[in-house]
Write a structure and sequence with these properties.
By secondary structure, this protein is α+β, with helices and mostly antiparallel strands. The protein contains six helices and ten strands; from the N terminus they run H-E-E-E-E-E-E-E-E-E-E-H-H-H-H-H.
């Protein structure tokens, strides 16, 4: 009996403790939730940066050029040779490295830069030309982590010193044509032009050819479906002719032959199927339906 009472009391105490622990767990969880919410709200608050972020974008012909950088201010300081030392790699801005992105291949100061994203540095000189550095790593925190072996190229650029001073560092595009521009860095009394040229005509025509070539898949798809359904044959023939005008292939010749045969133009159909079969035999890997088309050609010829 005594043992039963003691056991019952122990059970009750455990229940009380469990409830207390449960309440404490809830309190701890609530406090942690409040703390997390506070931290998140604190992270969401933006404060002004001493060097504000900036981006400038310009199209040169059909090529997009984007520069992402931060803008330090002069703020009464001596810039060249002091804040920005001569002869040392400079991030050409503030905070992280300045980023240059081009959508097509371009030429910068006579050197080729492939489409992509890069970091842009300079090495200021006390006299004479500065050194422009284009590095293939666009994710550098300033000069930290920079590796010279990752440079795409270096080029010499000629600085100019102006009479008027600019408080905030700025990149701009000047002397714009449809195939060239100067990317110009301004800060304090510095003006540093960087020449960029783009083969706009070649790029525009190449993009157009690619677009036309890509469209041929849809053209031939239309023609194939027209053959399957024996409908819209006139339109299918025009689309197949457009495909042949871009590039004559085994496939578009065979499709044109089949359309002409459906339209009752057997002699013309034989001519294009002969051309298609000939091209198929000359291919390194024979088309899967070459044998079938050879048999169809023989049947058409025998039915003349």
């Amino acid at each position: 009996m005594v043992f039963s009472i003691i056991f019952l009391e122990m059970c009750v105490m455990n229940m009380i403790l469990s409830r207390k622990q449960g309440v404490m767990s809830l309190i701890v969880a609530f406090v942690l939730t409040l703390t997390a919410a506070y931290n998140l709200s604190a992270q969401a608050v933006r404060f002004p940066s001493p060097s504000s972020n900036a981006a400038v974008k310009q199209s040169i012909g059909v090529t997009d050029v984007n520069i992402i950088y931060s803008r330090p201010g002069v703020k009464g300081r001596e810039i060249w040779g002091k804040l920005v030392p001569f002869g040392e790699l400079w991030r050409t801005g503030a905070n992280g490295a300045t980023v240059l992105e081009v959508s097509d291949d371009v030429m910068i100061e006579g050197q080729k830069l492939s489409a992509g994203k890069y970091s842009l540095f300079t090495v200021p000189a006390q006299t004479g030309e500065w050194t422009l550095v284009i590095n293939k790593n666009p994710n550098l925190g300033g000069t930290a982590g920079y590796k010279q072996e990752e440079d795409v190229f270096r080029a010499k650029v000629k600085p100019q010193m102006l009479t008027a001073s600019r408080e905030w560092l700025e990149f701009s595009f000047e002397d714009l044509t449809d195939s060239s521009a100067n990317i110009v860095l301004y800060w304090e009394r510095l003006r540093l032009p960087i020449k960029m040229t783009v083969a706009t005509q070649e790029i525009a025509f190449a993009k157009a050819r690619t677009a036309v070539a890509n469209a041929q898949g849809a053209n031939l798809g239309f023609a194939n479906y027209a053959l399957q359904t024996n409908s819209n044959l006139d339109e299918a023939l025009k689309m197949t002719d457009a495909s042949i005008a871009v590039q004559e292939t085994y496939r578009n010749n065979v499709i044109k032959a089949r359309i002409l045969e459906k339209m009752g133009k057997k002699a013309d159909a034989v001519k294009f199927l002969e051309k298609g079969v000939k091209m198929g035999k000359e291919m390194k890997t024979a088309p899967f339906d070459l044998a079938d088309n050879e048999k169809m050609l023989a049947t058409w010829k025998s039915a003349k």
